[in-house]
Specification:
The structure holds two protein chains of two kinds. Helix content of chain A is about 45%, strand content about 15%. Chain A is α+β, with helices and mostly antiparallel strands. Chain A has one domain: Cytochrome-c3 Hydrogenase, chain B (Orthogonal Bundle), CATH 1.10.645. In chain A, the strands form four sheets. In chain A, strands 8-7-6-9 form a four-stranded mixed sheet. A five-stranded mixed sheet of chain B has the order 2-1-3-5-4, with helices on both faces. Chain B has one domain: HybD-like (Rossmann fold). Chain B is globular, with a radius of gyration of 14 Å. Chain B is built from five helices and five strands. In chain B, about 45% of the residues are buried. By secondary structure, chain B is of the alpha/beta class. In chain B, α1 runs parallel beside α5. Classes of the chains: A alpha+beta, B alpha/beta.
Chain lengths: ~425, ~160
């Protein structure tokens, strides 16, 4: 038996590896292994105050920190019977845009573009694509700036709190965000025009199911109290276990998820496939122009979906700022009970993130956190296995198979630190 | 490379007021904070030329690209150069491994490549750390080496 192993997955967050086991001309097994140790976040805050929980659990990840913060706040607020005013909801929407811009810009320009343009990494791209790299860094910087203004820091900001915000940004800061979003929109348009027409050929096509949050009023967005699947089913966020159906596998600390007994995909590609028809403006035009049937069967199109989201984010931001400026700063909403259950669901850049809690007598009594990367593991393994088998049948060399395995894994934009809360995922 | 040789190389590279220094590192991890300390110690010489990663390294790079009055950029960081604690060396982007680009950090090599593409000379001043444990603080060897290098640079800036 022969083993092809990608020992360290580069250009992903955290430490992962892939093992492809080959027997004769058959791929016997493909394992996506997570090399990070279990971090036990779900037990850290048991017995602690809800205020401590919403500060501790976002430390799961420094890149999706505000998605964790928002999911955590929403879960706790449901437990405590808190409904936040419109300005708080809009501010949280704005901070989520910041995280999405920062994360998608980094992935699209610096992690995925080298694969797509045939470079070993972004450094090698600089000679010919310095402008694209600079635009990627500029967008990333802007994402960080949005988070600084809304959350008070680019990483692990503590300004969003239970029932509201510690303080609200100045008019000048908000107008700065609005102006910058307008200025940067052409750069985002350019990267969609570059990626949109690409015919991705690294991965074999296969149908899957897509899941994401289902924002009300037929809107596109990153926050909702229900989940929509590509088979048309809709679940209340409190019923998330009907979607995720977690199980343990021997080769990983991270739990795996399956829907109706099969793998499924979350992330930008899921949001586009499930909600793309709801997009307006230039983002909507791009979705209609570039989406096709292969978006339903090939994970590589996640890269294009992320680029279209950059356009969506920058188009939405100016109007969001205008709405926020019209509203007065509200008081922080206090809890009206000390015992309850609640689930916060949000779209982190990499996909649907759940924080489900129980609070008893003002103390955290149950914490369940399900991250997007953990949900994508089974589906990514399936695509890796199928692609490896096809490449083997075509007589491709080991190095080429290894390279393609990495490209497919990276297309999911995995965040391994997050997923290590449950299962250790390693790609060998 | 020992400190004397590094100083000699620095004097060849650094043209004084047209050189920007960017301190990199993690304040909490022992000698990894040396780049940040270097910038803190010298910032009074010119706050526009002594910059800290903690201000956002992408922002710094994008601003330096637009800044025609800076022609040389030197990153300062702790590096495993296979030498004694406090020893230092200066390398160009070509002298660094391609490294790994993770979601959390834009690699130094990419930032250096961008600056070079924009016509800047770019170097890494790397110093061998002794201790990288959380909360360890800077070791004596690092403090002493920083003192020597900082004195030399101060003298250039005060000329």
């Amino acid at each position: 038996m022969k083993k092809i192993r990608v020992d360290h997955l580069s250009r992903v967050e955290g430490h992962g590896a892939i093992t492809v086991e080959i027997e004769g001309k058959k791929v016997k097994d493909v394992k996506f292994e997570i090399l990070e140790g279990p971090r036990l976040f779900e037990t850290l805050t048991i017995g602690k105050l809800p205020e401590e929980n919403v500060s501790v659990v976002p430390r799961i990840c420094a890149i999706c920190t505000l998605s964790h913060k928002n999911a955590s706040l929403r879960g706790v607020e449901k437990c405590l019977g808190i409904e936040v005013p419109q300005k708080v909801a809009l501010m949280r929407e704005l901070m989520m845009l910041g995280e999405n811009v920062e994360s998608n810009a980094l992935h699209v320009y610096l992690l995925a573009l080298p694969d797509i343009l045939g470079y070993p990494n972004a450094i090698a791209m600089v000679d010919k694509y310095a402008e694209a790299v600079t635009e990627g860094l500029t967008l990333k910087k802007f994402g960080n700036r949005i988070m600084e203004i809304t959350a008070a820091r680019a990483t692990h900001g503590e300004n969003p709190i239970i029932g509201g915000f510690g303080r609200y940004p100045s008019k000048e800061d908000l107008l700065e965000l609005k102006d910058t979003a307008i200025k940067l929109l052409p750069a985002a348009n350019k990267v969609v025009e570059l990626l949109g027409p690409m015919d991705f050929k690294y991965s074999e096509d296969e149908k899957t199911t897509f899941a994401c949050v289902n924002p009300p009023k037929n809107e596109f967005g990153y926050v909702a109290d229900s989940i929509i699947l590509s088979d048309g089913k809709v679940f209340d966020a409190e019923e998330y276990t009907k979607v995720t159906n977690e199980k343990i596998v021997p080769h990983s600390y991270a739990k795996r998820s399956s829907y109706k007994g099969a793998p499924y995909t979350v992330g930008a590609i899921a949001r586009m496939n499930n909600l793309g028809d709801r997009l307006k403006g230039q983002a909507g035009k791009y979705y209609k122009k570039f989406s096709n049937d292969r978006w339903l069967t090939n994970p590589l199109y996640n890269n294009v979906a992320q680029a279209i989201e950059l356009v969506y984010d920058l188009e939405l931001l100016p109007g969001l700022v205008d709405k926020i400026l019209k509203l007065k700063d509200p008081e922080i909403v206090k809890p009206n009970r000390q015992t309850g259950k609640g689930t916060g669901a949000v779209e982190a850049p990499r996909g649907t993130l759940y924080h489900s809690y129980e609070i008893k007598d003002g103390r955290m009594s149950k914490v369940d956190i399900i991250t997007p990367t953990a949900q994508n593991l089974d589906d990514s393994e399936r695509y890796l296995r199928k692609t490896a088998q096809k490449m083997l049948e075509k007589g491709k060399k080991d190095d080429e198979i290894k390279r393609h395995m990495e490209i497919i894994a990276r297309a999911y934009d995995p965040c391994i630190s997050c997923s290590a809360h449950l299962v250790k995922l390693v790609r060998r | 490379m020992v400190i004397e040789e590094t100083l000699e190389r620095l004097s060849q590279i650094s043209g004084g007021r047209r050189t920007a220094f960017i301190g990199l590192g993690n304040r909490e991890r022992g000698d990894d904070a040396l780049g940040l300390r270097f910038v803190e110690d010298l910032r009074h010489l010119n706050p526009n030329l002594f910059l800290s990663e903690e201000e956002g390294v992408e922002s710094i790079i994008l601003e330096l690209i637009e800044n025609d009055s800076v022609d040389t950029v030197i990153f300062v960081d702790s590096c495993d150069i296979g030498s004694n604690p406090g020893d230092a060396m200066i390398v160009t982007a070509d002298g660094l491994d391609p490294g790994i680009l993770s979601t959390h950090k834009v690699p130094l090599q990419l930032l250096m490549a961008l600056l070079v593409k924009e016509g800047k000379s770019c170097y890494l001043l790397g110093m061998q750390p002794k201790e990288l444990e959380y909360g360890a603080g800077l070791s004596e060897e690092i403090v002493e080496s920083l003192r020597i290098i900082e004195n030399a640079i101060s003298a250039v800036f005060k000329e």
